[in-house]
Fold each of these.
Amino acid sequence: MKWIYEYKLWPNFHWDSQALEVQLAELRYKQGRLLGKMQHAGLKATQEASLGTLTSDVLKSSEIEGENLNPQEVRSSIARHLGVPDGGLITSSKPTEGIVEIMINATQDYKSPLTKKRICNWHSALFPISKNDTHSITVGNWRTNKSGAMQVVSGPIG
């Protein structure tokens, strides 16, 4: 198995649009139906649905990495970012704010190119300080040879 960064064309991704055309057309149709239903539900219901979906996305994405975030902090942070009235009542930690900032940027500004600057900004949001508990890390930039080979560290198998 190769890691994504080991591919020759990393980070310049390419895909076959024709191979995806049928699936994307079906998805777009379903998306249109959902958006139509959401318009009938009203602004408050639409905001609430977006807030709930993004909150779930942030929590589940973080769980994959073994991070268990406070759901109320996540929801409050997302509400502040989306401008939902009375939604952002709880103060969120810096790590929570960083993850929410990345998710909002990725989902709301999805048409922007995935540039080095954007990736580095996301990395800086994940690591608001330049040191973790055990060693210095390079924040907001590519890994250097001085850092050594990348290691994937996660919990026990299973």
Note: The CA atoms of residues 53 and 75 lie 10 Å apart.
Amino acid sequence: MDTITPVVLAGGTGSRLWPLSRSSSPKQLLNIVGDHTLLQETLLRCNKISALPPIIIYNKEYHFQVTEQTKHIGINSAKFIIEPVARNTAPAIAFCALEARKKDENALLFVMPADHYLSFENENDFIEKVRTAESLANDNYLVTFGIVPKAPETGYGYIRLREGLLDQKAFKVAEFIEKPEKKLAELYYKEKNCLWNSGMFLFSASAYLAELQEHSPEIFAICSKSYEKQNEKSGVIYIHPSFSACPSLSIDYAVMEKTQSAVVIPVDAIWSDIGSWSSIYDLKTKNEDGNVIEGDVITEGTKGCYIKSSHRLVAAVGVEDCIIVETRDSILIARKDQSQEIKKIVERLTINNRVEASSHYNVYRPWGAYELLIDLPNYKVKRLIVKEGCSLSLQRHKYRSEHWVVVSGTATIINGDEHLVLYSSQSTYIPQGAKHRLSNFSNTLLEIIEVQIGEYLGEDDIERFDDLYGRNEEIMKDILE
């Protein structure tokens, strides 16, 4: 199936999985189920479907995490597309279709969300269904994959089947149905003529763009103009800011509910959009009390709970049917049947400008990561981990001084006019306003404790003079150190 270009949609935020998932580190970039992150699992699935390099589209905040995770699993030829703002799936897929069609007028796209869980008892059966979809897509059908329901689920959209095609391997779509109430979900499950809407599609780039132009002409026009103005550098496409004017519509609303060419193929699989903590509980192995336990957790008289500890001991006594998630800066306690409402907590945190809504104490950067240890007025302490062969930018700060202490590894440092090589237990003081740079030219990780002191300690107090990752360029000006 080497005519199929995988398209991976990796721009979601996953607010219902707070406090683990946050806007700076959303669920698709986290290891939630299995040995890899959800993005990596999706990309590995791409390899089994097509030998062509995938197209990955996402928000600019995730660029360095996406490229690092892609490289980590040996995918080195992906095309990266960065959105200036999120505008839902219809515009994102349109831009990817324009890019694929530029290289091949007959290009087929297999579109997959990066934040879903999918596993099969018989993976070859799914590959055969993709072959069926490929044949239909070559006949200009827009094919979606519907999951055979395992229960009367109210948290998913449904697709109602019409008459069959290709010996009942595929069906025309009668209608797309929003998330139903319990009674309707039970009816759909009983009638067995509805499938869960998986968000996976296969169609030709040209067919999708033609349908988009007919049914959502504003999206088509804006995407086409922004595509003409794109900026590409080193295999990365930066979508022009004019893309921001696109209506924010899903592919279902913009195209699939309106087209006469929609076809659905049933897929029997274990699938979840991982839209809540309760859905993760459903996927995990339970102990004899029906609990899912992760991390340092002790329970007594506790049943039917998902309890996850990341940093501290969590003890639960006499608790039933709850979600308890501990991170370094936050603790979530919720009933399982209320886990969809967690997004309201995130909305309140955002309104109140709480940092807990957007970022963790662990923050990933192209050179490695840092962990915020102490954050108080006028001083801040961080633990920096610098990867082998990486360097922070040559920079200076207007409002703060810094003190670097080497914990392990070898630090090569520019500090004003000094060039230093420091080892474990050695340190250097960087005065306010001094140009400085931290590098790790060794073949092991470098660990540094950084103490900041000053009247303002925001991450935007950085003036860059040289950067290996292009962050001093206008096109990346919004990505902070």
Note: Confidence is low (pLDDT under 50) at residues 473-481.
Amino acid sequence: MNWIEWTGYAASLMVMISILMTSLIKLRWYNLIGAAFFVAYGIFIEAYPVAIVNFFITLINIYYLIKMSKTEEYFDINTIPAEDNYVKKFIAFHKDDIAKYFPNYKVSEKSDECFLLLKNMQVAGIFLGKRKNSDTLDIQLDYTLPEYRDFKLGYFLFQKNKKIFTDKSYKILSTDKESKKHNNYLQKMGFTLVKDKYIKTL
């Protein structure tokens, strides 16, 4: 295969990856790259209808990415009892996806802290924790819905709202090693692996 064929395959791959994305921003970015490759590919093989259509697709993706970057997002944290019926139903509804990322989580465990994480007034995730001692909170569940997994909720909770923990005398957050993807998320949120636990000092 020559480099022109590789360009076509790369374009197809990017478009295929884009439709697998749950995040709208990631979908737009991958689709933009795929469409741009198709523009080049169409020009190389003189398939100008392909190039023209994908040129406009590229412009559309750029337009929406700029629009999304300028849209102000609203985040909030709603503290509710862990025994609340909505919490139970939320966890039950998403139990299969939760199990993929939190294989160690047990529904039967009691929680001392429960936060609903909101984005634009929509429930985007849930946080459950159990007090280990006077200054340490064990995180039992820190689950975000697939369409909101862009780290923004995590930064909002752990970076911008540390006060929600420190006001309750928590100085340390700890959590078990879970799935590979979640462990990567924890590292981005400032957690450090200590033996078999991820620790964050507030």
Note: The CA atoms of residues 191 and 200 lie 5 Å apart.
